[in-house]
Amino acid sequence: MQRKQSYYAVRNTMHIMCDNALSSPQSLGYSLSGNLSNVRTQLYQKRNGAFYLIAWLEKQSFTKNKVINNPPQAVTIRFEQAISQVRAYRPSDATGGIAGSNQPKQTYVQPTTINLSVGDALTILEIVPKASPCRTLPPAAHLPQASSQILTSLAISPYCAPPV
After folding, report:
1. How far is CA 59 from CA 37, 66, 85, 142, in A?
2. Which of 33, 119, 130, 150 is geometrically suited to a Cys-Cys bond with 72, CB 3.0 to 4.6 A?
3. In this predicted model, what pLDDT tens digit does every residue of 57-96 receive, in sequence order?
4. pLDDT confidence band for 133 (50 / 70 / 90)
5. Residue 78's beta-bridge partner residues?
6. Are 43 and 28 spatial neighbours (Cβ–Cβ below 8 Å)?
7. What is the distance, to the nearest Å, from the Cα of residue 125 to the centroid of all Cα atoms in its chain?
8. Running DSSP on this structure, what letter comes out for residue 162?
């Protein structure tokens, strides 16, 4: 049996969103503009202070017999506070192979606005405010071998999906 792309999309989302502890959430000042018709968002915060904004287009993408191609919609995110870094993930995008599909597709340094193309697959933005105690780490693929192993072992908990 072979794993399908949807398996990797769910696995990658769980890997990106993994957090094994509860914390007191803070607020993030931001606004959305552009073509917001059928655009859905959900904001989360991890215990390290980083926010995760998930955006997707809530439209039917298939029927019993065929795939429906929905064009992505242009959305602008404007931050109302200082942001250190934003990394954009697309968990279902297999560009770079299976190992690369849970790595950031784009990184923004000190952005005030970000222009996104929101489609019917999830886009996850990791947003690190300047005042956040969180230290952003490079993707595991860019760390020395020992560091990659340490990060992988720390990510495994009852609430986290281990890398496959």
Report:
1. 10, 14, 30, 36
2. 119
3. 999 888 889 989 999 999 999 999 999 999 999 988 876 6
4. low
5. 31, 113
6. yes
7. 4
8. P
